[in-house]
Design brief:
The complex is a heterodimer. By secondary structure, chain A is an alpha/beta fold. Helices cover about 45% and strands about 20% of the residues of chain A. The longest helix of chain B is centred in the first third of the chain and has 84 residues.
Chain lengths: ~120, ~700
């Protein structure tokens, strides 16, 4: 099995398409559209980097997934960068408190994603 | 104090004053009465004593006069009998020498013959003395009175001195007039005697004839003879009424007022009178009375001054009491006014006294905090702060009143804090401490219930945050994809795809912005720009459906309406917009197809006598859970965020606003996987109904 480089988690298909377009060239990309699938795919695929939307409907939102990841000794080292339209300082802090490794605010450009990619996929 | 009590007290006050003055008057009257009594009593006493003295005196003088005249009479009788015996041979001079005739008293004795010639005397007679015209002769000529005649004092022709002639008739043996024996007495004999008597200045001793002519009158050292007092009351009345007595009169002779005592000696037709000058008589009494009157005047003045001062004081007391009562009333009235304001104020107030203990707590404060007035009154500042802090959530940092006061004093800013309470209502209170400059109040805590405001603020913030958030999401696509297109080369298919997304999301943003503006406008204008008119619901729905752009492959909605036209008071454009939203949603949320059904039915309105029309729009689409159904009309709420259903999430919010401005409401029935029915209820147009406000 090829290593999944990046897992994209967002309930919005357009955002997933965008992230794929920006980051997908030459990389192995996986996608999930809700929290539950995200967890499953992380366990299965062990991606090297996860970009996850904070606001997701359904059982688990982004932060909840994050919490669960950090509880799992196997998965807790997975780098996860949150993506969100909310850009307040307390949103950032909240994400970090839940165990996020990074935070990107929508709308974003490639330059906003690049540092994380460089850091975790070098 | 009630008016009746007030009147009574006023009356009582007047009574006291009246009593005070009356007592004063009585005292003064008594004083003067007493003095007056002493005066009259004194006078009377003086007079009675004087009268007694005068009575004794006149007794003596009368007796003296009588004795003198009796002895004179004896001499005259003796001479008379000797003359009858001896005739002209009677040697009067010898008798005088012998002492038979007392020269000390009687200065001359003689006989007047029946013709009136002075024929015999104890002194040599010079010439022929015709005394026939003298009264002491004439009176005996006609008849024999058998009495001694006492003449008025005359100045003797012979001697040139005053004398009183005493005479008796000489009866011849045949009873005819034989002449007169006359004896002269020097009236100064009496005066000298009387002169010994001390009757004080103005005191009088006199011997009057009953004819009112003074035989002798002596006042002090002044002696006169022959004064006529016949006009005095003594001679006019008294002498005839009583033989002796006292009377007071202003003398007709010298005008001096005297107390007189008189005693008559009727046998000689004389009356002895003694008088005391009343002024002299009452001298001491007057002096004493002056002193007494002066005293009385002083006492009166004193009493007057005392009572006047007292009554002034009482009046002052009363006016003070009145003033006090006035200000008491004003105070009470003011208190009532303040209490009324205090009590009904929706804001809470807690006032603290000078020792920073709770003095007053108004009802509003009690309602806001649940802390009772009784529990709080008198509580110290620290305890109060602690109690208040105890009501708050841990997140509110209530610093306490002392710290608030410190803020005001040192930083000269207002000390305002916001407290979130633990209670079920999640109330939020704004407290402000104000320091007071007045004497009895040290500080006041003002409390406002800002729960609603806070909620509204929170909602607004949330809305803004949500709006911003909603806009960011399409922006992310537009920004991101346009960047990708510019930076990377993509294949044509992807290029078209990306451009499509950009376009779609741009449109979405436009829609969101438009709807946001709509919503904002509706809210801001509060429906004032709604133009209400009478319209027919069936016509509106028919137009709506006709203009509706059905999604491809879908059928127009079924319309089931009553035959009779139903009229509404509505803004056509806005109501159409609202219904259009509902209709589009019905199609949007049944993407797999299915019929959309519109049902219109009438029912009874909320108020009796009114009707209500309901427009039910039903689909057989994805439906929602009850929780989702509840939130449908909230702004930006999207039941489906999968992206399958396009939308801003604002449509139903706008619809709700519009329907509510038409005095209607929305209800939703839905089940997941089965479909949704959205119902718009509106009041039927009543002829008499006024435009909704």
């Amino acid at each position: 099995m090829e290593t999944t480089d990046i897992l994209l988690v967002d309930d919005n298909p357009d955002i997933r398409r965008l992230l794929h377009a920006m980051l997908g060239r030459g990389r192995q990309i996986a996608e999930a559209e809700d929290g539950t699938s995200a967890l499953r795919l992380i366990r299965e695929l062990r991606p090297r980097l996860v970009f996850m939307d904070v606001m997701m409907p359904g059982d688990l939102n982004g932060l909840q997934v994050l919490s669960k990841l950090r509880e799992d000794p196997v998965l807790l080292t997975t780098p996860v960068v949150m993506v969100s339209a909310r850009g307040q300082e307390e949103d950032l802090r909240n994400a970090v408190r839940h165990g996020a490794d990074g935070y990107v605010v929508k709308p974003f450009g490639l330059k906003d994603l690049q540092p994380w990619v460089t850091k975790y996929l070098a | 104090m009630s008016a009746a009590v007030e009147k009574r007290s006023q009356f009582h006050h007047r009574q006291v004053l009246a009593l005070l003055w009356m007592s004063a008057l009585v005292l003064v009257a008594i004083t003067w009465g007493h003095v007056y009594f002493l005066d009259s009593e004194g006078r009377a006493r003086e007079f009675s004593v004087a009268e007694r003295d005068l009575s004794n005196l006149t007794r003596l003088s009368q007796e003296h006069a009588v004795r003198t005249l009796r002895s004179a009479d004896q001499v005259i009788r003796f001479v008379q009998s000797r003359y009858l015996e001896l005739g002209n041979k009677l040697d009067l001079a010898a008798l005088t020498r012998q002492g038979v005739i007392d020269l000390e008293i009687f200065n001359q004795v003689g006989i007047i013959d029946p013709k009136g010639i002075y024929v015999l005397a104890n002194r040599p007679i010079e010439g022929r003395l015709d005394l026939s015209d003298r009264e002491h002769f004439k009176v005996h000529v006609a008849s024999d009175s058998g009495q001694l005649f006492v003449s008025k004092p005359v100045i003797g022709r012979a001697t040139g001195k005053w004398s009183i002639q005493l005479s008796r008739r000489i009866n011849k043996p045949d009873g005819s007039f034989g002449g007169v024996v006359v004896l002269s007495i020097d009236p100064t004999y009496f005066t000298e005697f009387y002169g010994e008597l001390n009757l004080g200045p103005g005191g009088l001793t006199s011997l009057y004839g009953l004819d009112g002519v003074a035989r002798m009158r002596r006042v002090g050292n002044l002696t006169e003879f022959g004064a006529d007092a016949s006009q005095s009351s003594l001679f006019r009345d008294l002498v005839r009424q009583q033989p002796a007595g006292a009377y007071t009169q202003r003398s007709v002779v010298d005008g001096v007022e005297r107390l007189y005592y008189y005693r008559t000696a009727p046998q000689y037709a004389l009356v002895a009178v003694a008088g005391l000058d009343t002024g002299y008589l009452l001298q001491n009494h007057r002096k004493a009375m002056q002193a007494l009157y002066a005293q009385a005047a002083l006492v009166t003045l004193l009493i007057g001054a005392l009572v006047w001062g007292l009554s002034r004081y009482l009046v002052q007391l009363r006016s003070d009491a009145n003033a006090r009562r006035q200000s008491q009333l004003q105070l009470e009235e003011r208190q009532q006014q303040l209490d009324a304001v205090f009590d009904i104020s929706p804001d809470g107030f807690v006032s603290f006294d000078q020792s920073r203990c709770v003095k007053f707590v108004n009802p509003a404060f009690g309602q806001m905090t649940g802390l009772g007035k009784r529990a709080l009154e008198g509580m110290s500042e620290q305890d109060f702060s602690a109690l208040l802090a105890g009501l708050c959530l841990p997140t509110s940092h209530f610093t306490g009143l002392q710290a608030m006061r410190h803020t005001v004093q040192t930083e000269a800013t207002e000390a305002v804090q916001v407290l979130e309470l633990k209670d079920a209502g999640h109330r939020v209170l704004q407290v402000q401490l104000r320091l007071s400059g007045s004497g009895t109040v040290s500080q006041i805590l003002h409390v406002r219930d800002i729960t609603h405001e806070t909620e509204v603020e929170a909602l607004k913030s949330e809305f803004l945050a949500t709006a911003a958030h909603e806009l960011r999401t399409p922006m992310a696509s537009i920004f991101g994809f346009s960047e990708v297109l510019m930076s990377q080369g993509v294949d044509e298919e992807s290029e078209q795809e990306f451009l499509g997304i950009i376009h779609k999301q741009s449109k979405l943003m436009v829609d969101i912005l438009n709807e946001l503006l709509d919503l904002a406008r509706i809210e801001a204008r509060r429906g004032k720009d709604f133009k209400f008119e009478r319209l027919c619901l069936q016509d509106l729905l028919a137009d709506l459906i006709k203009a509706f752009q059905c999604p491809p492959g879908r059928a127009l909605p079924n319309l089931e309406v009553p035959d009779a036209p139903i009229y509404l008071n509505a803004d056509t454009g806005k109501l159409r917009q609202a219904l259009l939203n509902v209709l589009s949603n019905a199609y949007k949320y049944s993407p797999d197809g299915g019929a959309v059904h519109i049902l219109v039915e009438l029912s009874a309105g909320a108020t009796p006598g009114t009707e209500q029309v309901s427009v039910h729009v039903a689909d057989h689409g994805m439906g929602m859970t009850p929780e989702q159904a509840q939130k449908v009309c909230t702004r930006f709420y999207r039941a489906d965020t999968s992206g399958r259903v396009p939308g801003t999430g604002l449509g139903m919010a706008i619809t709700k606003e519009i329907v509510e401005h038409h005095k209607g409401h929305i209800s939703i029935i839905s089940a997941p996987g089965e479909g949704t029915q959205v119902s718009v209820h509106l009041p039927v147009y009543a002829e008499a109904a006024s435009l909704p406000a």
